[in-house]
Amino acid sequence: MRRILAVALVVVVGATLLTACASDPEPRDVGVAWAPKGRAAVLVTWKDDNTPNRITIEGVLSESPSYVKYIPAGDPNSWEIPTSAFPPDGNYKVAVAAGTSQGGVTSKLARSEVFDTDGPVQPSAAGASPMGRGVLIKWSVPTAPQDFTPNDPLDVKGSRTQRYVPMIGRPGLMAKVIGPATTSTRQVIKSIKPPYVFQLRTQNEWSTRLGGQVLGLTSSINAAVPGLAQFSVPIRIRGRVVLQQVVCEPEAKCTSQRATPAGVPVEVLTQVTPGARWTPAARGSTTAGGHYDIAVPTGGSRPYKISVPQYSRPGVITGTSSSKPAYTKSVIRLASAGFIGGETAKKRGTSVTVFATVKPALNSTAMLQAWNRQTRKWANLKATPIRKGQTSLAFVAAQPGDFVYRFVIPAAVMFGRPIDGTITPQLALHIR
Fold it and tell me: C-alpha dihedral over 285, 291, 293, 299, to 10 degrees?
């Protein structure tokens, strides 16, 4: 029994001695800092006893990336790890141990402080407004999320730690940089016309993200304008707006796409007098599919054209466009006509007054006509003055029978524009 125990003790002691011989002292004072050339790499430094070393990256509550670098004995105790080797938005350490690719790790791991690889904060909203022949683009950036490794060795000091590179994309071309990186949250772009897409390449020391997009859209519009309108009775102008927008995919040429969104503003313009400037007569906006249907109050005969004004909203600025002018002829509107008192049957010898009221309230002369059964034609009876849109004629019902009357209202001119005349419906009267 003693002999067996002695043999076992020799085996255990021998194994311990073998492990101690195969183990090298672990590296010391592992530090990380930014490499001197533009923060393109992380500089790792350490101290050792002139041993070969293995460098890896360890995730802290994050998956460890598959990065391994062996440094021969005698080489400087430093190495630059490119930032691309670190996954974004995680917490990591750099671990250094003695070891070679053939013999493996021969010491305990020495680790750096924990640091984060948080990327830039993307702009939350961007908008554009016209500025001369160009545009002014502004964007806002939300507050950065909580830093769970404050004051780590790779934190960049200062309030503005990220930059924005402005880019423009056009159909058939790759998106290209149009200016240097800036810490400002506004960009003036001179002499630019849609269609285009504006993007920001937001970057910090760790990564780059695209955001802050503004679409510069072109528009086209068609319209159906009624050819006739009764004075002061609204007409309905209908049509459709089509937008062209630019879409840019990473590492690909930009393309153009049609869009027919709701909410695009639409203006109906008119010339009140010949040669006058075009002024708004009504406003509306598109519904789903880009369609619009706008009620337009009418006056005298006049042309109309429909326009998409230049407008902007978050992420979008749209160029103006107009339809071809279309002329709407106005017709005098009959407001009322008949006999005073509303009676259409009278006794012979009583007084009868026939009247008509029209819009606009013009001053002119109407013609009262009666239907001649023998000739089967309308015969002029009496010219009656129109004052403030009203005309009437009083007469005595001299003989019994059935009679039919009407007023003929002549054409007029308003603000230099013609208004077609009208005729009242047939006004029947029975005399007994």
Answer: 80
